[in-house]
Amino acid sequence: MEHSAALGLGRLEPGAWVDTELLSGDDSDECLWLGGPVSRGQLRGLVSQWEQELANTGLSPGGTVALRLPPSLTFVASLLAAWRIGAQVSLLDHRLTRYEADQAVQRLAPEVLVEPTHVVGSAMRGYADVVAAATARPDGSPAQTPHALVQLSSGSTGPSKVIARTAADVVGELHRYDSLGEYPRGGERIVLLASMVHVLGLVGGLLYSLHAGLQLAIPDRLTADGILGTVAASERPTIVLGVPFHAELLAAATAPAPQVLTRMVVAGELLRPGVAEAVNARYGVPLGTMYGMTELGVIATDLFGKLRPGYAPAPGMDLRVADGELLVRMAASPYIGLVDPTRWSDGWLHTRDAATIDVRTGLVTILGRLDSQVSVGGLKVDLTEVEQTLGALPGVDEAVVLYDVAIEAYVALREGTTVPGVEAALSERLAAYKRPREVHVLARLPRTATGKIVRDRRVLRAQLGSQPGADA
User: Fold this and answer.
1) What tens digit of pLDDT does each residue of 123-154 get?
2) Which of 259, 270, 407, 463 has a Cα-to-Cα distance from 169 of 20 to 30 A?
3) What's the mean per-residue pLDDT of the chain?
């Protein structure tokens, strides 16, 4: 059963859940830190101002609004204000090009678009100071579905999907975090590195912090020193929430380990071998992991890194494996538009992830994308195994392994590491039929806005020769 239904949430009154689930609490509570403290009373005042700003454009319950804003107090306030009105909110990543943003707006057809008119920030800054305007779009359409939140998938393996969730879905996920028992509680602090436009940073970071009475802090700079400085700036017990890339960044840092750091938690893609051990050796804290999807949010967790490679299903999650694929029970399709039966059918979401479930413990192990299993000369090869083996080699910073007519790898190498050296090391670890026929070197691998490595062969091919240090 879907968790929101299990909680008896049903269809929440438009807007009411924002006050009860996210904005309640003492006015003096410092709920956010973006270069300085933001109290709950200040946030409520900003939300009310944005509620009036959006209402002035004609936005009303059942209306639609798209936000294209960088991480900022403006983003938080305008998001909560739109939900308080009872509108359907689409989130667009601020890093989209103008062309990409226009395409997304045309696809989503919001009645109101909120964009910056002035931004003070930089590419490495975790948040921005933003002045924004809400503009009515005469060709926009009101909501065609009862969903409160619309997000575009990260597109790491192809075109983005339009994914929608109701207010009950979002609140159900917040309560699912409550039920984990091992997630932070009031009085603690989350330093957020993941994007607030995407599900981990949005629900697991921003919304949960407001819901549970935590302080959410965003670093001034998303460098290792900037992140650790933000962690050390408070006496509250603190976790760092991000993606595996951030764990690798911090594992290589040289700044002192902050005493208030209790652990790191990452999600978004499989962790490279050795990263958890490096984090523990560097900071003396565990590296936890979570498994989830934009469609459902958090599905399974290993918050203290004790179950690796397994995950414990989150409360209310009904999982099964069919033909090697992990399925998650979901009452209705999360997709807007035509329902693709290969993604959702008969009450089950098809994750397209290969997995096993231990019949004794119930732990689920994610083996990688289902399409990572290929046949080479009649022999089965798991590209995730090849990629994990390659990524664990000394001198390999990043790696992605794909299959077209043959297995090929794209890697970023440390200085002094050569392709022949990598191939020699692989020959000791993998059978000949599993090894890449070609190894392409890039100065760095392209990533999506959420920090995931791009797995689109056309994008990777286009990078060859276009980066300094890449092979042609």
Assistant:
1) 778 899 999 999 999 999 999 999 999 998 75
2) 270
3) 90
Question: 471, 34, 453, 443: which is closest to 248 by C-alpha?
Answer: 453
Name every residue whose Cβ is closer than 8 Å to that of residue 428 and which is 6 or more positions away in sequence.
Answer: none
CB 318 within 8 A of CB 347: no
Give 194's Cβ-side CA count (13 Å radius). 28
CA distances from 166 to 54, 89, 147, 163, 311 (A): 21, 11, 4, 11, 26
Q: How far apart, in whole angstroms, are the C-alpha atoms of residue 125 and residue 128?
A: 7
Alpha helices in 3-144 (DSSP H): 3-6, 16-17, 40-56, 73-85, 98-108
Question: 171 in helix, strand or coil?
Answer: helix
Residue 234 CB neighbour total at 10 angstroms: 18
Bridge partners (DSSP) listed for residue 349? 328, 344
How much is the pLDDT for 68?
96
- pLDDT of 238 reads 97
Amino acid 15: pLDDT: 85
| Exposed / middle / buried, residue 330 (Cβ in 10 Å: 0-12, 13-18, 19+) | buried
Tokens of 343: 């993604």
pLDDT at 90 over 90: yes
**Chain CA centroid to CA 91, Å:** 13
Q: In whole angstroms, how far apart are CA 332 and each of 142, 145, 276, 295?
A: 21, 12, 36, 11
How many CA within 13 A on the CB side of residue 441? 18
Q: Give the integer Cα–Cα distance in Å for 304 and 324.
A: 27
